[in-house]
Design goal:
- The protein has about 100 residues and is of the alpha+beta class.
- It has one domain: Glutaredoxin (3-Layer(aba) Sandwich), CATH 3.40.30.
- Helix content is about 40%, strand content about 15%.
- It contains 3 helices and 4 strands.
- It has a 4-stranded mixed sheet with strand order 1-4-2-3, covered by helices on one side.
- Strand 2 and strand 3 form a beta hairpin.
- The chain is globular, with a radius of gyration of 13 Å.
- The two termini are about 25 Å apart.
- About 5% of the residues have low confidence.
- Belongs to the SH3BGR family.
- InterPro entries: Glut_rich_SH3-bd, SH3BGR, Thioredoxin-like_sf.
- It is found in: Nucleus.
- Its main location: nucleus.
Length: about 100
C-alpha cells in the first residue's frame, strides 16, 4: 500500500468518525454501513447519490448520509461546517444511514 493510499484511507476514517460523533452528540439514531463488506450496499450508495453530487472522476467516497432513501450528503469538510449540517440533514433529522 502506498503512502498516498494510507493517507486517503486515514482521511476517510477521520471524516467518518467526525460524522458519527456529530450524530451521536445530537442523539440522532443512525445505522452505520460498512460498504467494504457488501457489494450490494456499495452499489446502492453509488446509485442513490444524485448525479450533481457525484465526483468528476471515480466513485463517491464515504462518509455519505441518507435519511431513508433521501440523500443528505456530506461535505468533504464536514467537521468544520457544524452550522450548515443542520440544514443539510433537514433538521430535525430523526434517523438515517451513514455509509
Amino acid at each position: 500500500e502506498t503512502l498516498l493510499a494510507k493517507y486517503s484511507t486515514s482521511l476517510i476514517k477521520k471524516r467518518q468518525q467526525d460524522v458519527v460523533r456529530f450524530l451521536e452528540a445530537n442523539r440522532i439514531e443512525f445505522e452505520e454501513v460498512d460498504i467494504t463488506m457488501s457489494e450490494e450496499k456499495r452499489q446502492w450508495m453509488y446509485k442513490n447519490i444524485p448525479e450533481d453530487r457525484q465526483p468528476a472522476q471515480g466513485n463517491p467516497l464515504p462518509p455519505q448520509i441518507f435519511s431513508d432513501d433521501r440523500y443528505c450528503g456530506v461535505s468533504s469538510s464536514f467537521g468544520s461546517q457544524w452550522v450548515s449540517v443542520f440544514s443539510t440533514l433537514s433538521w430535525p433529522f430523526k434517523h438515517g444511514t451513514c455509509y
